[in-house]
Amino acid sequence: MTEAYVLALLPFLAAVGAAATPRMAAIWGLCATLINLGASILLAARILSGGDMRADLGDWPAPLGISLVADGLAAVMLSMTAIVATAVALQAMSWGLVQPRGGQQRSRLQAGFWPLWLATLGALNALFLSGDLFNIYVTFEILGLSAVGLTALTGSRNSLRAAFDYLAAGLAGSLVFLLGVALAYAAVGRVDLAAVPALVDTATGRLALGLIFAGLAVKAALFPLHFWMPAAHSSAAPAASAVLSALVVKGALYLALRITIEAGAGIEVLRIALAVLGAAGMLWGSWMALRAERLKLLVAYSTVAQIGLITLAIGVADDPSTSAMWQAAALLMLSHALAKAAMFLAVGRIAEELGHDRISGLNRTDLRPGVAEFAFAIAAVSLIGLPPTAGFIGKWLLIDGLIDRGAWVWIALLLGGTALSAAYLSRVVSRCLRGGPHVAPGARRPEWRTGDVAALGLATTALALGLGSALPLTLLNGTAL
Amino acid sequence: MTQLFDALLAVGIVGVAVAALFANDRFAAVGAFMVMGFLVALSWVRLGAPDVALAEAAIGAGLTGALLLRSARRLRVEPKMCQSRWSVAASGLISIGFAGLLYAAITSVPTVPAYPPLVAERLGESGVSNPVTAVLLNFRAWDTLLEIAVLFVALVLVIVVPVSRVRPAPLGEMVVPFAKVVVPLSVLISGHLLWQGADAPGGAFQAGAVLAGGGLALVLAGAMRLKKPLQGGILRATALSGLAVFGAAAVATAALTGHLLGYPDGQAKIWILGIEAVLTLAIAATLVLLFHGSVRRVPK
């Protein structure tokens, strides 16, 4: 479990280092991110060869103490986080954050970005490894607070307002979640994840689970509790947007998936509610993305839609002890994280080259499309779920399972959502594919930047993951139920 | 007699809460909120949870109140304190429904606490005899480490997000004599709470909050000129040392015993006291900085 200890502790220590020595912050950040990537790969390899691992912290067994649990699902989530983290670190390294208004502003952004981002990384790692509901609540507190900081970093009026809404919504979600955990403790006298099956059997326990899911719905920005999210994700700096949209909301989605897996077949009402809200979110987010006028807002609403899709997948999955449909949700999370991070990084670069992010102004005759547009297009292919991307494999697993059950309504909704996602992403991609008469002969090409490398790397990883999806699926198959 | 006291306490809490919600003046609302914090702390004493009572009084009422007063001063425009009647009625209904749901849920639960017996069984191995400290610093020390990380993030937010400094209005001639009494007293009480935490209610959070109270008295008396970068630097380093030392201790225990936060046999008390001592200073420094705002100029 040394790898797990490194994953849980190193980001926090590096965050302190970055806060104490702001000039070296980027170095702390890059080193920690790279070690984090190595540790998550080693952990995944250990789990592949040796099965699940478990460590009782302080040698106190649960429920007295807290256990770290590293299984296939955790390993997939940790690797996803580490890959996105590396790209985000590369981007933030090269380019600071967008809109540096004077030197002082820029260094404040950089000095603040690294400690907050490293704390986010540590909280995510601790969350994915934790086997204890109260401990997970504490990780959510770190996650929520540092995400608010990442939103507010640009210091603009919009981002401060969005950050405040985010803080208020996050606190409300936390309180409801904590209330659920307290009720769960009252009902069964323990708060480790092994208590979840016992919760299903009592009325108080079911109420506790309901409250926990309500809190998670706020934190995951599940429709109709997503009101805080588009503004927050679209007004933050690109590297921060990528973190918020690709990773932070995944913490809540992961826990929803984990609890439904632990709870087994006993929470039918909750599952149906998740599936219905998910479907509604998918359609609403897509509709808003179709109508968005700014590129970042389109991508943010696309996150609302994709969260809906993932929640739908969690909701319609059968009892995990008999069916592997829940793996579709995990795979969709993985593919969304990679593609959405790539998309936000690419949008940041596009906006930087154009000087604005209005969709109507993407056709510029004096500027040829560059690497960022290419990365956006690949990421779009993955989000829509065309073969051979990871998004395709996830949707395939999902629809395959639904066909077996004959659940045609859900299939129709899924296909409708997919068509809508193709429609709203085409608004951008079709403009990126311009050529011929639209481009003047002497048009310049955007220069290469490290940010392009990060976006393109993530997008191609999402693409390649479809071909190599056997690896995450093997990890997920090994997850003990 | 005690029943009468409890009844008065309950009525008082609800009454002060209503006063806080419907006060027309922002400062009056914060004042009522602080009084409510102290009454809630008293109710924790009556419920047999002195640890929670101490934390509620020091942090929930005292320091939160100070932070709220500071923010209230910063906001210039007086907003309409009362929203429209409909929204008040709606939120009241939702709250009552929620409370009713909770009441039904809690009363339906058979009250057999399962965790305290577990703690009691292993308390002898934890190195301390106060079960709350045993849980916070040994059995579930990982939670506490992450909570220190929450404080760390809050501190970074205050440093990064531009906040104006407090310029305390001159408080009159009594402020320095007041500080001369309060500051040494806060140091003594804080040390006592820290030491006592091992076998009676107390511990790093309460001790840190009390020490921070002394720090605030210093700030308000103008004795701590935080604008000097050196002192600000020391304060900041102290605040950051909490997470750094706790994290380093976790690494050290993992290296020594193979278990993260598993203290070596027989040395648990020394480790716990050491960590708590650093945390007390770090929590106090963090809380003072949260009140005071960023002290260090952003590097060029």
TrEMBL record, chain B:
The UniProt record lists the keyword Metal-binding: no
Domain MrpA C-terminal/MbhE per the UniProt entry, residue ranges: 95-170
Domain MrpA C-terminal/MbhD per the UniProt entry, residue ranges: 12-76
Domain of life: Bacteria
Entry membrane topology: Multi-pass membrane protein
Record-linked InterPro entries: CPA3_antiporter_subunitB, MnhB, MrpA_C/MbhD, MrpA_C/MbhE
Pfam entry (one): MnhB
A GO cellular-component term linked to this record: plasma membrane
Subcellular location: Cell membrane
Residues covered by the Na+/H+ antiporter MnhB subunit-related protein domain: 178-288
Transmembrane segments: 6-23, 30-47, 53-72, 84-106, 145-163, 175-195, 207-226, 238-258, 270-291
UniProt keyword terms in alphabetical order: Cell membrane, Membrane, Transmembrane, Transmembrane helix
PANTHER family: NA(+)/H(+) ANTIPORTER SUBUNIT B, NA(+)_H(+) ANTIPORTER SUBUNIT B
Family, similarity comment: Belongs to the CPA3 antiporters (TC 2.A.63) subunit B family.
Protein name: DUF4040 domain-containing protein
Origin species: Meridianimarinicoccus aquatilis
